[in-house]
Amino acid sequence: MRKTIGICLLLTAFWGCATFSRSYRLGNDAYVNRDWEAAIEYYEKAVLENPANSVYRLALTRARLAASHSYVAEARKLVREGKREDALAAYERALDYDPRNYWLSQEIQRVRDDASPAEARPEPLKIEPPVRLAAGDEKIVLKFLQEVSLRSIFQALGKYAGINVIFDESFRDKPFAIDMSDQTFEQALNTLCLATKNFHRVIDERTVLVVPDMPANRQKYELVGVRTFYLSNISAQEIQQHIMQQIRSQTKIPTVTVDKTLNSITIRDTPAKLELAEQLLRRWDKPLGEVMVDLEIMEVKRQTLRQIGLDFSSRSLSLAYDGAGAVSESGTLPLEGLDFGSKANYQIAIPSAFLDFLETDSDTKLIAQPRLRGLHGEKMEYVVGDEVPIPQTTFSPIAAGGVSQQPITSFQYRDVGIEVYITPRLHLEGDVTMELELNVKALGGTGYGDLPVISARKVKNVIRLRDGETNLLAGLLKDEERKTLKGIAGIKKLPLLGALFSNNDQRIEQTDVILTITPHIIRALPVEREDGRPLWIPLESGLSGRGGGAADVVGLEPDRMMEDREGAAPTETPGASRVTLTPPRFEGPQNRNFRINVGLQAREEIQNMSLIIAYDAQVIQLKQIDRGNVIQRLGAKPSFLENIDNAGGMCTIGFSTDQVNKGFQGSGRVVTLVFQPVASGESTISVSGATAHGPGGQPVTLETGESRIRVR
Asked: Do the Cβ atoms of 653 and 610 come closer than 8 Å?
């Protein structure tokens, strides 16, 4: 006997050694108490005792990361308090526990250099034109105080700098006066073009072409470049419409293509617009911030059961006939030989009784300490529990066209346990806003048909915490008490006798859930000081083909120029034809379509015309184009073209008459555009491109309007 007991003790000791070591268990206790130093020490001992155990190595890595994040939070707090030396010491301790953390080493270097939290980034690439004028930077002195020929002013300017100035065939000479003193040749040429509504295109180092500033001439002569931007953090497809809306002009929509494989965006536009697109993409293409969320979930459950009294095996007395002619196995009773008068033919069953003195008290504690790492704006999920099958029965016909009488049972699995959903959002001030949703589900007994009943407690709110601040969420208490009294009817309620012939069953259950949440910012949003500065939009007319900005105009500061442009009212050229969009303003709900009329006021005959109309496809989409009376007045068989591109936010409309020497002249409606709102917001419907020609092929100048739409 003693030998058997000794063998059992040896097996028990061996089994205990075969599980987790004492050092590992002590490390877990220290980890739960957030004593990172002690936890790391115990885990290191466990790894030395058993280097091949992956559980020990994983626990050691987890404790090191937790200690590193703790010291990082302390260091950032010291930096905010101005204690730079103490912060560097805390940073060094954090780096000792996580030496491969690149972002942590960069943050330490910035604190040492006392620099801005943002990383140094290369300067944007300055786009240079393929050909530059060899005019030099010498200041010129040219004054035309009296009105003279505009052509002669351009020629005099070119002769002064040794540049050959040529003119387009559509150039119109007119009297003009200007003072171009103390300016370089390019500055004087830009100023003169801006003042006279012309632009120039550099042909070679000694030749420049002066062209009237019209949409058709811009498309023909303006310098255009193509550049590809490779994006790292944002989707090129998502920002395609945004970049088009930002860099498009009133007369031209840029060509923007997307490569999903390389996540690149290619833009075809003027050099000035390409530089603007580069600066916008640099501000948009930023990595999302990252946050580490420490959760500590504790579920405390206490159950008390008390059963005292008599417990009867049955609640009834039974009397059965067992004489001659008893009930057979088939349930029938033969009449021959029945004798109901003899007591020996009867049996009576009396229930047995047991005296219960049962009382149990159980405590359960569940502790989970997950660490969730996620991106700014991305949802994190943590689910711990079980999946409980819930049967569902449906009835279907056995044959086609029959009655649904065949039962088919399927099972639907429902999660039971603790579910935590967190969506973090980082702020520039170092705070973290978290959309928190906590679901606690448990089995609450059985219901109809012995189906399980699931009890649920749910908390959903939004909290904002500082980096390293802990929030405690408690009070999800469930207290349930059940009392059951069983006994003999009529006796169980008597004062003393009832207690002897009854059974009292009392069950008390208490459950509480406590959640602590602590966010730690791993990587903040990389917003630089430069990102807050405004970007100046290049003027859309009167500047050189290489695309100068507001600063290229001498004597006019950028802020003042923007004020002048915003305050100036649009001017109409006398005698020019005009394309109108009516109504100029519209406001309506999302569930109602609206119409925009495209009108034409032709002061001279127009034989053919092409229009490109742009709009914001994320707010409105074009569904239909209805022809107007202008098309009907073009002749018997006019040519009409329409193309709707809702993906690019534009449509193309064109027409031409079937008569050789005659065109349309007068006023009328070209088409009616039927739009459907798809989202709330604002959109501008504008004519981004317009070309027209007369019967002799001469270009016709068109002025265009726009319509502003607001969808509620």
From this structure: yes
d(CA 467, CA 289) in angstroms, rounded, equals 13
Classify the C-alpha dihedral 142-147-152-154 as positive or negative.
positive
Interacting residues of 153 by C-beta distance below 8 A, sequence separation 6+: 142, 144, 176, 178, 192
Q: How many CB atoms lie within 10 A of CB 259?
A: 13
Which positions ≥6 away from 215 have C-beta within 8 Å?
A: 251, 252, 689, 690, 691, 702
Q: 696: Cβ–Cβ under 8 A, 6 or more apart, which residues?
A: none
Helix (H) or strand (E) holding 10: helix 2-18
CA atoms within 13 A on the CB side of 436: 20
Round to whole Å and give the CA distance between 203 and 546. 12
Q: Provide the whole-model pTM.
A: 0.53
| DSSP codes joined into one string, 432-471 | EEEEEEEEEEEEEEE-GGG-EEEEEEEEEEEEEEETT--E
Q: Under DSSP, is residue 66 helix (H, G, I), strand (E, B) or coil?
A: helix
Helix orientation angle between 22-32 and 54-80, rounded to the nearest 10 degrees:
30
- Interhelix angle for 54-80 vs 102-113, to 10°? 20
Reported as a single tens digit per residue, the pLDDT across 490-501 is 666 666 666 666
Q: 């206490």: which residue's tokens?
A: 302
Interval 190-244: pLDDT, tens: 888 888 888 888 888 889 999 888 877 877 888 888 899 999 888 888 888 888 8
Q: Name which of 101, 202, 208, 215 is nearest 157 in CA terms.
A: 208
Indicate if the alpha-carbon torsion angle 127, 132, 135, 140 is positive or negative: negative
Chain mean position to CA 257: 22
